[in-house]
Design brief:
Elements: E1 3-7, E2 10-14, E3 16-18, H1 31-34, H2 36-39, E4 53-59, E5 62-67, E6 77-81, E7 86-89, H3 95-104, E8 113-117, H4 123-126, E9 137-141, H5 142-149, H6 157-179, H7 183-204, E10 213-215, E11 218-223, E12 226-231, E13 243-246, E14 251-255, H8 270-281, E15 287-290, H9 300-321, H10 326-332, H11 348-366
Parallel strand pairs: 3-11, 7-8, 8-9, 9-10, 14-15
Antiparallel strand pairs: 1-2, 4-5, 5-6, 6-7, 11-12, 12-13, 13-14
Length: about 375
């Protein structure tokens, strides 16, 4: 675990630095041993049609793994291929999705996965962790470990909404398969039904697996010629979001702290989040790999989210001070000024649900409730 020493107004961070393992032998890594992860018994819920992931190159040895839609994966992953091993950021929504990622990873590298970073505790980023064995170090913040160990990744509005959504889609798609006369549309419905049925099977097989190595502020890995910094810049999307920073490549893997679309607010700390984004802005970054959406280089995305959060915090705090119940406060909130940056705000039903969850959480933080 990283330690923090404070001296006057300065904060001195002592980072754990992990170098290449010492070995008396030279030569290429043992590929057979390295593939023990992929050789493990295939978990339930992996049946799908076609490739599940597209590997989008970001820089030499750095990829964004994006779901193709043939199976439910929940979030993006980042792949960092080092001299002798691989680091994966986030494990998706189930052991099935994580297993398929490792299987398809063969398309870009034969090297073994040795590190898996969990950016935060939410189910769509962390529920594949159980696929990793003792040869893989799962890295995350101490808060993430505590939340996963307590079962928090399997409760709350986000997870409950996911389970309800999958059940509703299965019911609707079964109806379409039974009632649609057009063969093409019926075949499409069958394909989608397979996806959601497999996703439900996969979710039922989840055993939440917390990080095995935790940090408070900073942890640095040195793998060959690559430096990988795992940083906690402050609370934001959750109480323990970490980012992965490659200083030489100027790449930042952000999880859900920063993404092109409006993030989930239900476990957030709005005031802290604004400041945390400011710390990220100070890093020398030319490519951002988010947990959702395509990787981007536009640094204005940081300011856009800060502006929304400031407005959300101001309106929400005023509503709380006025004693307004959450539903009434949400009806009065006005975010039309942010439509250009977040077009999804135009969907009034989605916006109402999103803001209801977010404002409920803001009220909790204002009242110092957990």
């Amino acid at each position: 675990m990283a330690s923090v020493a404070r001296l006057g107004g300065l904060v001195l961070i002592a980072a754990l630095v992990v170098g290449e393992p010492v070995s008396a032998q030279s030569g290429p890594p043992d590929r057979t041993e390295g593939r023990r992860i992929e050789a493990r018994r295939r978990p339930p819920g992996t049946n799908h049609i076609g490739r599940a992931f597209e590997f989008v190159p970001v820089a030499e040895g750095v990829w964004q793994a994006v779901g193709t839609g043939t199976m439910g994966v929940g979030s993006n992953a980042a792949i960092i291929v080092n001299e002798t091993d691989v680091l994966v950021v986030d494990s998706h929504t189930s052991p099935a999705a994580a297993w398929v990622l490792l299987d398809e990873l063969r398309r870009i590298t034969p090297k073994p996965v040795r590190y898996a970073v969990t950016t935060h505790f939410h189910y769509d980023h962390a529920h594949g962790n159980q696929i990793y064995g003792p040869e893989v170090e799962i890295i995350g913040h101490e808060f993430t470990r505590e939340m996963m160990a307590s079962g928090a990744s399997r409760r709350g509005p986000a997870y409950d909404g996911f389970v309800s959504f999958v059940a509703a889609r299965i019911a609707e798609l079964r109806r379409q398969v039974d009632t649609t006369a057009d063969p093409k549309r019926r075949a499409e419905a069958r394909g989608q039904l397979l996806r959601y049925e497999q996703q439900r099977i996969a979710d039922r097989a989840v055993v939440p697996t917390p990080p095995t190595l935790t940090l408070d502020d900073r942890l640095t890995l040195v793998r060959g010629g690559r430096e990988i910094q795992i940083l906690f810049a402050g609370r934001g999307h959750t109480g323990g979001d970490v980012v992965v920073y490659l200083p030489k490549e100027k790449i930042l893997v952000t999880g859900d702290l920063l993404q092109p679309r409006l993030p989930y607010l239900g476990d957030g700390f709005a005031a802290d989040w604004i400041e945390t984004l400011g710390r990220l802005e100070a890093l020398d970054v030319t490519a951002f790999i988010p947990g959702h959406g395509a990787w981007f280089s536009d640094r204005s995305v940081i300011g856009r989210l800060q502006a929304f959060l400031r407005d959300f915090l101001a309106q929400g705090t005023a509503a709380h001070r006025a004693g307004l119940p959450v539903p009434e406060a949400v009806r009065r909130m006005d975010f039309r000024a942010h439509l250009a940056g977040y077009p999804q705000l135009a969907d009034t039903a989605d916006t109402y649900d999103r803001l209801t969850i977010g404002l409920t959480r803001l009220y909790q933080t204002l009242e110092r409730r957990p």
